[in-house]
Design goal:
Elements (H helix, E strand, L loop, with lengths): L35 H5 L1 E5 L3 H13 L3 E5 L2 H10 L4 E6 L9 H15 L5 E5 L12 H7 L4 E3 L5 H9 L15 H27 L1
Parallel strand pairs: 1-2, 1-3, 3-4, 4-5
Helix pairs in contact: 3-4
Length: 209
């Protein structure tokens, strides 16, 4: 179906959240290439609805973008933490009916990045159920506070999504030495123990002499 030349694809203004600018002259057969660094990277799609995932995956494929899919916020957190530099964009529904909500997952991703020096990815809240637009149970402010960069409107998401991806800057390299892991903690602890032990031996030798 051809896109209307006069359609405004913007989400109604939400203070503090980026929304896509309107494109009122975009013939449906035009395909503008995205930046190379965007095409090389990967997207992580999160939605409990299998059909929604397939639609979004097909949308990304049309503009040359690959993606992985998971169905719960818990899976999203683990998948991102296992290989954070693989995904430059995470698109997730707020998903209020889970033990860990989409909003919680957004926040935990930001906390993980901050704690481990990971260059931040671009977080998109997908408003498929219009929950953010209608501000159900104060969801709008919760989304704003969770570190989301952009809200994807529930209707005609192709052009707003393209606009968001086209404006992404390339993420800098990740300094993995800043990552705090159980192994690194154990190594540091052993090193301190060895130093203290050696120091004790020297002191006892001096006392004997």
């Amino acid at each position: 179906m051809a896109l209307s030349h006069e359609t405004d694809y913007r989400l109604p203004a939400i203070e503090g959240v980026e929304t896509a600018s309107p494109r009122k002259r975009w013939p449906a057969d035009i395909r503008c290439p995205l930046p190379d660094h965007v095409l090389r990277s990967w997207r992580l799609l999160v939605d409990h609805n299998f059909i929604n995932l397939k639609i979004m995956q097909a949308t990304l494929r049309r503009i040359g973008c690959g993606s992985d899919t998971v169905s719960t916020p818990e899976e999203a957190i683990l998948t991102y933490q296992n290989d954070p530099m693989k995904y430059n964009v995470v698109i997730m529904d707020p998903m209020r009916h889970h033990s860990v909500t989409g909003v919680d997952a957004f926040r935990q991703i930001r906390e993980f990045e901050s704690a481990n020096g990971v260059p931040p990815c671009f977080l998109i809240a997908s408003d498929g159920a219009r929950s953010i637009l209608m501000n159900l149970n104060g969801l709008r402010q919760k989304v704003l506070d969770s570190g989301v960069d952009c809200v994807l409107p529930w209707y005609q998401h192709m052009l707003p999504l393209y606009d968001a991806l086209a404006g992404l800057e390339e993420r800098p390299a990740w300094d993995r030495s800043r990552v705090v892991t159980r192994d690194s903690i154990a190594e540091n602890t052993m090193g301190l123990g060895t130093a203290k032990s050696g120091q004790g031996i020297e002191e006892s030798d001096r006392a004997v002499s």
